[in-house]
Amino acid sequence: MAAAPDVRTAGAIRAAIAAGDLSAVEVCRGCLDRIDGDDGHLNAMTVVLREEALARAAEVDAHRREWHDLPLLGVPITVKDVICTRGQPTTAASRILRGFRPSYDATVVTRLRAAGAVIVGKTNCDEFAMGSSTEHSAYGPTRNPWAPDRTPGGSSGGAAAAVAARFAPVSIASDTGGSVRQPAAFCGVVGLKPTYGRVSRYGLLAFGSSLDQIGPLTLTVADAAAVLAVIAGPDPFDATSAGAPATALADAPCGHARGLRIGVPRRLLEASEAGLDPEVRAAFETALKAIGDAGAEIVDATLPHAAYSVPAYYLVAPAEASSNLARYDGVRYGVRAGTAEEVGDGAAGLARMYERTRHGGFGAEVKRRIMLGTYALSAGYYDAYYRKAQQVRSLIRDDYDRAFADAGIDVVATPTTPTPAFRLGERAEDPLAMYLGDVFTVSANLTGLPAVSLPAGRTAAGLPVGFQLTGRPFDEATLFRVGDVLERAAPWWQEAPPRTGATNPGAGVG
Ligand code: GLN
After folding, report:
1. Residue 449's closest CA among 461, 436, 462, 440?
2. CA atoms of 171 and 383, how far apart (whole Å)
3. How many A from CA of 433 to the centre of ligand 1?
């Protein structure tokens, strides 16, 4: 079989398989080998679906001619463990869902399978996607492939590490407050949070239902566009999914940025609360210049309320979480603690069973969120906290609407995160420090706007830096257009982290 030139991206893999230059089985084996080699060390995977993946790849090979035009023909992908895969473990990295195997696929999974993708496994994350480091996981933390003593970010740390370590060229994950973009930034890959409603949330274990979106992590912008085109679109199973056409998403790149206005919220970047690292700032300015050199006009953006996004988010998200997580009570899903003999009968016994199940099933961060959220929603505090946060949320959205409408800005540019990847353990005991790192990412969820993190270089110590673009509603195409310009100017994705080569002792829900 002829050696294919560069088969690292989803696009190149698809093309090589469609042309018969590579077999899907061969590609799948390559991924499984890399997982076997490195995941014992990285801990990015919660489960590897070896037999299923190889069987599906063989099926792709058998149907290569009929399925020739499928957009993800034979492309290996990994799926975050908060997204339902039929008959396969789906635990949200929580003890409370140990052993849970959903009876259905999430809509995104159904669409990816129908597009020819091969699912090779599920990825590690913070429990119920609550966190920014993947340290709050029942499987233990994931390591950053670029720096093993550092976090890959979170909550989709396993997804980002899996793409960076070339386990598979595509990961699918959820973003409620930056969980696709922040780990993408820390691991040097592309991470997209689509517009709220662009992608169906059916089959996503809900965290904050008004904030949650599913999006891809990939090596290149073209791959993110191709995956979005597959997973986007209305779904009768999610009433918030929108019918906006996903046409021409993959055709958006045109090699220049002429006619586009890029807004930079200078005051927000300068604010001391942002705590911007000098190397992150330098990488941001370099990326901005590349986009300016490609013809875009760089202007100031005024987003006076964006500085309040973290407090608003950390009221709204826990409030919604406290409601969504009420369903994990030991009755319908996963683990139940306390037999009838242990807890006694009747209502009191049932209450004791709930208590034991939730006490032992949830980790400390999830309990903290449930308590914060319950408090913010309680009578007497609702107006002061939850309602106020929703009002701030409207003000932030108004800021963006004005920037787009009055100032004619097409996309807003910021760093994705104030700092590069921090050390494992560094913020684990300090939730506030962990939350403050989300200052640039949570606005896109509060407003519903699409946002992407793009690789924008590395620090002197070799840590990746992310560059974030936020666009108009349903205008992911412009994000891809600008992202493509940046990627051409500085193709950071072509550099891979060193392989660790450790052997895999396997992982289990601990
Ligand atoms: N880091 C944020 C949080 O802890 C965002 C998480 C997410 O997007 N799922 O809530």
Report:
1. 440
2. 39
3. 13
Q: pLDDT tier at 499 (50, 70, 90 boundaries)? A: confident
Ligand 1 centroid to 130 CA: how many Å? 5
pLDDT at 3 over 90: no
| Residue for token pair 């995104």 | 108
- Joined together, the tokens standing for residue 460 give 């002197």
Query: What's the confidence (pLDDT) of residue 503?
Result: 44
Q: Hey, which of 176, 324, 442 would you mutate to test ligand 1's pocket, going by the most ligand atoms within 8 Å of its Cβ?
A: 176
| Beta-carbon count within 10 A of 6 CB | 10
Identify the residue whose tokens are 């975050």. 80
What CATH number has the domain bearing residue 155?
A: 3.90.1300.10
Contact 442, 313 (CB under 8 A): yes
How far away, in angstroms, is 435 Cα from ligand 1 center?
Answer: 8
| Domain enclosing residue 225, as ranges | 10-253+475-493
In a domain, 201, yes or no: yes
Domain annotation covers residue 383: no
CA-closest candidate to residue 179, choices 315, 313, 340, 89: 313
User: Minimal CA–CA distance to 110: which of 91, 129, 84?
Assistant: 84
pLDDT at residue number 501: 64
Residue pointed to by tokens 């976090």:
151
For a ligand 1 pocket test, name from 128, 201, 214, 438 the mutation site with the most ligand atoms within 8 angstroms of its C-beta.
Answer: 438
**Predicted pLDDT of residue 125:** 98
In this prediction, residue 117 carries a pLDDT of 98
Q: Which amino acid is at 105?
A: D
* pLDDT band, very low/low/confident/very high, at 505 (cuts 50, 70, 90): very low
Q: Is 129 in the pocket of ligand 1 (CB under 6 A)?
A: yes
- Nearest CA residue ID for atom 10, ligand 1: 130
Q: How far is the CA of 364 from the centre of ligand 1 (A)?
A: 15
Helix (H) or strand (E) segment spanning residue 192: strand 190-193
Quick one: pLDDT at residue 333? 83
Strand segments, DSSP code E, in 236-335 are 261-264, 297-300
Asked if residue 47 belongs to a domain, the reply is yes
- Reported as a single tens digit per residue, the pLDDT across 185-209 is 999 999 999 999 999 999 999 999 9
pLDDT of residue 21: 96
Residues 6+ apart with CB under 8 A from 15: none
CA 31 to chain centre: 20
- Please tell me the predicted confidence (pLDDT) of residue 243: 83
Please list, in sequence order, all residues whose beta carbon lies within 8 angstroms of the beta carbon of residue 31, skipping any fewer than 6 positions away: 53, 76, 120, 166, 167, 168
How many structural domains are present in the chain? Answer: 1
pLDDT digits (tens, 9 = 90+) for 244-263: 766 556 667 788 999 999 99
- How far is Cα 279 from Cα 285, in angstroms, rounded to an integer? 10
Tokens of 454: 């793009």
Q: Is residue 184 part of a domain?
A: yes
pLDDT value for 508: 41
